[in-house]
Amino acid sequence: MKSPYVQGLKQGFAELSVYSLDFLFGLFQAVALVGFEILLWTFVLPADNQTALFERTSYFLLANGIALVIGGARYRFARDLSLVIKEGTLSHYLLKPINPVLYIYSEHVGGKGPDFMIGLIFIIMGTLWIPTFTLVKLPLLLITLAAALINTISLNVIAGAVAFWTTEANGIKNAFAQTTRLFNGQQVPINLFMEMISPFWAQFLYILPFASVAYTPTHIVIAKTFDAIDFRFIIASIIWAFILPLLATLIWNRGLKRYEGTGL
């Protein structure tokens, strides 16, 4: 018997093939966004030499590539969850012997081929320009990538579950997305961001979950030496990887009781 989640994955790929132009549009959008950030920071903080420019370019390619691959760049999974709640199609999933969130996520993964391919291209390009990456850092990188995926899925579930309580969930989802992009290192390298604000507020960037989405794994790759790695971000990522899934499950189950009770 075939797994329903594999079927959901295939369904996502089937829908993607119908909208093949999405890949070209997504590629143009992602390249334009990263290019704008690199150009902006070139003027805001000019690079001292060509090496510094390459490092900055690598950083933005890696941070945005990782966010695209794990789904932390646009909160599209949260959008998918909001839609099935608002349109009432969640009821169809609840009638089946499946985990609705996992099934919807399998469909989402199948349909995010363009983001995955574009993100992978960015990661490869960014890594090629970073000669300091060694196999010694690989275990840490894999741990932080796993934490990034867990935290991203959890944040998407939390943002999507808001639709149980309000019909204006898109606005809240967009606020989640913009907050994440600001504090996860995609737009501003967090080490530079911390230099721009007071030391008191800078400390909060260590304990927020957003850095784990992109900055922390990127920081491990670009750190010149093992000693240069800021382990506070890694520890925070791992802690959030335990807290956020529990919080997302609690919020989803609370919303599900309200959905079943009111027939939204």
Molecular structure report:
With 264 residues, this protein is an all-alpha fold. Helix content is 75%, strand content 0%. It has 14 helices and no strands. Helix 8 (138-161) packs antiparallel against helix 9 (169-183) and helix 8 (138-161) packs antiparallel against helix 13. It is globular and about 60 Å long. The mean pLDDT is 79.
Give the strand content.
Answer: under 5%
Compute the number of strand runs. Answer: 0
Tell me the distance between the termini. Answer: 33 Å
| Biggest sheet character | none
Walk me through the topology.
Layout: H1 4-18, H2 21-44, H3 50-70, H4 76-86, H5 90-94, H6 100-111, H7 113-128, H8 138-161, H9 169-183, H10 190-196, H11 199-202, H12 204-207, H13 215-222, H14 231-262
Defining key terms:
14 helices
Please sum up the structure shown:
This protein has 14 helices and no strands.
